[in-house]
């Protein structure tokens, strides 16, 4: 199965929910001057139902109307696709797109890495360890050499889980003893990456400690320790967010961003929710790029996020 098919399947719950509320989005006969208000209202509710958020749903509807006016086209699906894509582009670009009559760039986003050590954080169960495995698979397929650090020493099974993935993917894993200091594991792995000149090191972390304060303090410590081992790193700090947690996840993300400073976000489990519209508030409110999205449990179920591709897959 190609990535596009995986993505389409993954987003099917959200698509079905939107279609059930807004009706089929084919070439609906809407006159540019006199749009059918019922259709628009249904669509707005459907978007809110998909966790797009009331503010952005209303912006999207405005853009749909503008697009229809500007283009003279009556195809609701096309107008909605344009408006959704605009929402998922970075701030500066968004205004320009509207002025230019909505012509989003079709080229696939590339994930530029600012460094060689990527610190992976997020609460328990969001899919951090699995995502690290998927990233390992993704980057080795791009001819990069990869290493993992099993920095979740809080949960005994976490190191084993990453070890199993490492073996399956042929990626070496730096392990610590259960209950040992995660910062020490991160330090050893960062040093080893440099010595072996490996292209990328992904550092796993625990998502649960005795309380949130401890977790944030530990993550800060792990980050500082990586910096001690290699002054240029970590070049990236990526937060893994579970799409199923919706708005709560977004609130969590803001706290992590405040505490450690994120350079990227990965949204997982988009296949498990009818509220895939959550990616819009994530992009708009966090101000941190959405790097990858996950739509399943297999190693292939992760790819760089591309706004246009996402919207095409979502609308089917
Ligand atoms: N359906 C689905 N499940 C996922 C996805 N990513 C991770 N998972 C599952 O979520 C569960 C928790 O993942 P894990 O990596 O252990 O989370 P961690 O505690 O953050 O490290 C596992 O059962 C994974 O297989 C995804 O994109 N889709
Ligand atoms: Mg884990």
Brief description of this entry?
The protein has 316 residues and is an alpha/beta fold. Helices cover 52% and strands 11% of the residues.
Name of the level-1 CATH class of the largest domain: Alpha Beta
User: In total, how many domains does the architecture comprise?
Assistant: 2
Helix-strand topology string: HHHHHHEHEHEHEHEHEHEEH
Estimate the global geometry from the Cα principal axes.
Answer: elongated
User: Any idea of the CATH topology of the largest domain?
Assistant: Rossmann fold
The radius of gyration over CA amounts to: 21 Å
Name the beta content range. Answer: 5-15%
Considering DSSP H and I runs of 4 or more, what fraction of the residues is helical? 40-55%
Give the total of beta strands: 8
Q: What's the average pLDDT?
A: 89
- The span between the termini is 16 Å
Q: What is the makeup of the main sheet?
A: 8 strands, mixed
Tell me the number of helical segments per DSSP (H or I, 4 or more residues long): 13
């Amino acid at each position: 199965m190609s990535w596009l098919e995986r993505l389409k399947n993954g987003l099917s719950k959200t698509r079905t929910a939107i279609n059930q509320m807004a009706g089929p989005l084919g070439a609906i006969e809407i006159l540019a001057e006199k749009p059918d208000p019922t259709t628009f209202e249904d669509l707005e509710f459907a978007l809110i139902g998909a966790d797009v958020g009331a503010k952005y749903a209303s912006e999207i509807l405005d853009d749909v109307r503008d697009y229809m006016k500007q283009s003279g086209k009556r195809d609701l699906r096309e107008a909605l696709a344009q408006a959704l894509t605009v929402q998922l582009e970075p701030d500066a670009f968004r205004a320009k797109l509207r002025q230019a009559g909505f012509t989003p760039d079709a080229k696939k986003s590339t994930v530029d890495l600012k460094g060689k050590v990527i610190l992976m954080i997020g609460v328990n169960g969001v899919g951090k360890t699995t995502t690290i495995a998927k990233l390992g698979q993704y980057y080795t397929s791009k001819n990069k050499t990869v290493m993992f650090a099993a920095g979740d020493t809080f949960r005994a099974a976490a190191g084993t889980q990453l070890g199993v993935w490492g073996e399956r993917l042929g990626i070496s894993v730096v392990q610590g003893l259960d209950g040992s200091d995660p910062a020490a594991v991160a330090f050893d792995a960062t040093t080893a990456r440099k010595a072996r000149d490996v292209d990328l090191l992904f550092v796993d972390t625990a998502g649960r400690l005795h309380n949130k304060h401890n977790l944030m303090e530990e993550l800060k410590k792990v980050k500082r320790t990586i910096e001690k081992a290699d002054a240029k790193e970590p070049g990236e700090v990526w937060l893994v967010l579970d799409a199923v947690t919706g708005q709560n996840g977004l609130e969590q993300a803001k706290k992590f961003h405040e505490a450690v400073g994120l350079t990227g976000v990965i949204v997982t489990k988009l296949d498990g929710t009818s509220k895939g519209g959550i990616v819009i508030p994530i992009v708009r409110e966090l101000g941190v790029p959405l790097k990858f999205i996950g739509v399943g449990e297999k190693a292939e179920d992760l790819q760089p996020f591309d706004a246009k591709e996402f919207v095409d897959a979502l609308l089917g």
